[in-house]
């Protein structure tokens, strides 16, 4: 179930499922690769209540969006969606793969970006290394994948991304864990899309992104993502960075109160033309 007023947009033979809430300057939420648009429910409500137009959608291969195995580009889909909604420029809020898409879009269409909020973001071409403890969880993921055990794969990925790879499995429970397992379970069972256009290399170009950017990462996330966060905070000319204590890869559902506070401070600063004062 989505937050807000649902909409469908046809792109190629796909039907992208989205929702919107509120009025004002647009804020577009781009979900992680182990989730769908429901990971932003709390942020959608908070942003709309503060006088912004909140928009989110399920990308191909996720949630309620339906897509055949046809040639496509997530970047082109995002552009087509903004055009269909008559949005010229927006704040893009992306987590993980959604953050990577936001960066790709900012480099291709800098004039359409009001600001960026990137949580534990992907960056195509970024280095990746793991500690022994993190590598053990990755090995369990690979084993479940090779055996085709989607239920076990979902549980292992919940440990990786919701609890954090160095944390105790099951650290995050209750409704938040149930939501993760449902969102990721749907994605794992979607028909494979084999014709997606590869994302462009971005790691060497992050310094070109001039838009005001809020960088967030949880200290329970993969070490490589924390190192990436530090690198981006140094390379991006208008970046403001915060490390979230006791949170892993999906802070929007684990600590929505904290994310909402930082997000609204950033949006207020953008609207007022000032610099965010992060608590």
Structure characteristics:
8 strands; 279 residues; Rossmann fold; alpha/beta; single chain
Description:
The protein is of the alpha/beta class and 279 residues long. It folds into 2 domains: 5-128 and 193-272, Alpha/Beta hydrolase fold, catalytic domain (Rossmann fold, 3-Layer(aba) Sandwich), CATH 3.40.50; 133-189, no CATH class. It contains 9 helices and 8 strands. Strands 1-2-4-3-5-6-7-8 form an 8-stranded mixed sheet, with helices on both faces. Helix 1 packs parallel to helix 9 (256-272) and helix 4 (132-147) packs antiparallel against helix 5. It is globular and about 45 Å long. The chain starts with a strand and ends in a 7-residue tail after the last helix.
Overall tally of structural domains: 2
How much is the radius of gyration in Å?
18 Å
Mean pLDDT: 96
The CATH topology label of the largest domain is: Rossmann fold
Instruction: Write the H/E string, N to C.
Output: EEEHEHEHEHHHEHEHH
The number of helices is: 9
Structure class: alpha/beta
User: Approximately how much helix is present in the residues?
Assistant: 40-55%
In CATH, the homologous superfamily of the largest domain goes by the name Alpha/Beta hydrolase fold, catalytic domain
Number of distinct beta strands: 8
CATH architectural arrangement of the largest domain: 3-Layer(aba) Sandwich
The description of the largest β-sheet is: 8 strands, mixed
Strand neighbour order, sheet with most strands: 1-2-4-3-5-6-7-8
CATH class of the largest domain: Alpha Beta
């Amino acid at each position: 179930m989505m937050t807000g007023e649902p909409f469908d947009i046809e792109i190629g033979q796909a039907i992208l499922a989205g929702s919107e809430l509120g009025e004002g300057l647009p804020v577009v939420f781009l979900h992680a690769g182990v989730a769908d648009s429901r990971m932003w429910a709390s942020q959608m409500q908070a942003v709309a209540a503060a006088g912004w137009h909140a928009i989110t959608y399920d990308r191909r291969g996720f949630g309620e969006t339906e897509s055949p195995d046809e040639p496509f580009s997530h970047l082109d889909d995002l552009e087509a969606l903004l055009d269909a909604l008559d949005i010229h420029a927006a704040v893009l809020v992306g987590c993980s793969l959604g953050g990577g898409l936001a960066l790709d879009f900012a480099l291709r269409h800098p004039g359409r970006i009001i600001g960026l909020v990137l949580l534990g973001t992907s960056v195509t071409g970024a280095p990746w290394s793991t500690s022994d403890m993190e590598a053990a969880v990755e090995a369990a993921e690979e084993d479940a994948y090779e055996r085709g055990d989607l239920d076990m794969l979902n549980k292992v990925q919940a440990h990786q991304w919701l609890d954090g790879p160095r944390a105790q499995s099951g650290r995050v429970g209750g409704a938040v864990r149930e939501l993760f397992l449902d969102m990721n379970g749907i994605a794992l069972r979607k028909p494979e899309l084999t014709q997606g256009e590869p994302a462009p290399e971005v790691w060497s170009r992050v310094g070109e992104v001039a838009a005001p950017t809020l960088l967030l990462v949880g200290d329970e996330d993969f070490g490589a993502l924390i190192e990436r966060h530090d690198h981006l905070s140094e390379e991006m000319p208008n970046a403001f960075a915060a490390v979230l204590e006791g949170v892993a890869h999906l802070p929007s559902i684990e600590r929505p109160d904290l994310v909402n506070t930082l997000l609204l401070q950033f949006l207020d600063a953008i609207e007022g033309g000032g610099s965010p004062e992060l608590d």
